[in-house]
Amino acid sequence: MRGVRHAITAVLIFIAVAGTLLLGFAILRGRPQDLPWTRLDLGEPIGMFTGRKLAGLTDDYAQCRALLRAAGVRYSMLPPVKGEGQCGYADGLRLGEGGSRGIQFSPASLGISCPVAAALSVWEWNVVQPAAQRRFGARVTRIEHLGSYSCRRIYGRSSGDWSEHSTADAVDIAGFRLSDGRRISVLNDWTKGGEEAAFLREVRTGGCKTFSTVLSPDYNAAHRDHLHLDQAERGEMGWRACR
Question: What is this structure's pTM?
Answer without folding.
Answer: 0.84
